[in-house]
Amino acid sequence: MAAALLAATATLGVIGAPGAAVAAVAAPGRGTEQQARAWLPQPTGLYPIGTTSLQLTDDPRDDPWKPGQHRKLMISFWYPTTRPATGNDRAPYMVPAAADHFGNAGSWGQRENGFEPGRTDWAGIRTHARADAPALPGGKRPVVLYSAGFGDPRTWGTALVEDLASRGYVVVTVDHTYDASEVAFPDGDLATSVFPALMARPGLDMGALLRKTLQTRVDDTRFVLDQLAGLRHDAQLPAGLAALLDLDRIGMVGHSGGGSTALQTMHDDPRLKVGVNLDGQLHFSGPDGTGVQLPLPTVAEDGLTRPFLLMGTQESGSGSYHQQPGWDALWQHSTGWHADVTLTGSRHGSYTDAQSLLPQLARQGAVASTTLTDDVGDVRPDRAVLATRSYVSSFLDRWLRGHDDHLLDGPSPRFPEVVYER
């Protein structure tokens, strides 16, 4: 789950352009001030990247957070293309409406990550992808779904997602509406997270909220899988993209609550062949936010017969699978291949874009040093990004492509900061 929800149940268990510049902009009611700028790390794969976004509406399903509305989602595709994006051709990290909300006081994103409200030019951050570019020809490619942490937008894992796309995967990122800090729709609607209001309620049953959130996300993910199966032509997508999707080779990667979603969806839906859980717990707190509420999620109670990878951090109550009741139960009950790695010196945000963006913002005064340490620990940002990319891609290559670089055979001298358990 995302950091604030993790903190609520804690008893349960620098990358970018050197010398990042600042831009002078006008802040409402505050005159002209300097906004911090940041850059995403370069992808490491062979292919240029394309991206496109699509709205999906689940007409038969009532929105669990807003009864009386159809459930609607935004997804983005990230995929190999033929020509790299340069300059202004690079797609924005966030569309303007989402960027404005994300960066201001009161948004779940600002609350979660602790950056100074209004001090960062989120709309100015660029990806390495070309919007609506034609897909690279040459046959079908494995598909990877990506789900961010509870309360986080689908953009908050872009550095990892872009890297996977540059290595030849088609990655589909999912925004879970009214859960994510904000979701901007093509018609101008901005759906903001219900979590700030819910967390302020006296007597909130935290365990019930987590169960509802996880189930909603699993339902969202299975709906997206249904929709991918229906994309038989390119009417809604850039040229060649629908034909690129190999729906017999689908994996899922998620951070925090997205990692929990990935493994629970694997349990519930055989279309997911493999899953990676980046620091997402598999147990629920009691009504008051303490203790462990039983039963555990069914994925932990039953285990998995297909491959999965756990990547933990040194957050309190996290790390090794032994330290979490849900991870430990999953481990004991699973018969498929599985491994657990922990990044020394890391924190909950280390597997997200916080690891590459926040250190740059801290150098410009947009993030306090204590907040930075709480979010991403004291692991070197470049090493954290490299480790995340390397272990996730090694796992996916091994089980979706049949290419084994043997990184996951045991402890590796390439990554002495990674603790390996099997």
From TrEMBL:
UniProt cross-references to InterPro entries, sorted A to Z: AB_hydrolase_fold
Family matches, as SUPFAM superfamilies: alpha/beta-Hydrolases
Origin superkingdom: Bacteria
Keywords: Hydrolase, Lipid degradation, Lipid metabolism, Signal
Pfam family name, one: PAF-AH_p_II
Signal peptide range in chain numbering: 1-23
Keyword Metal-binding: no
Protein name: Lipase
Source organism of the structure: Kitasatospora cystarginea
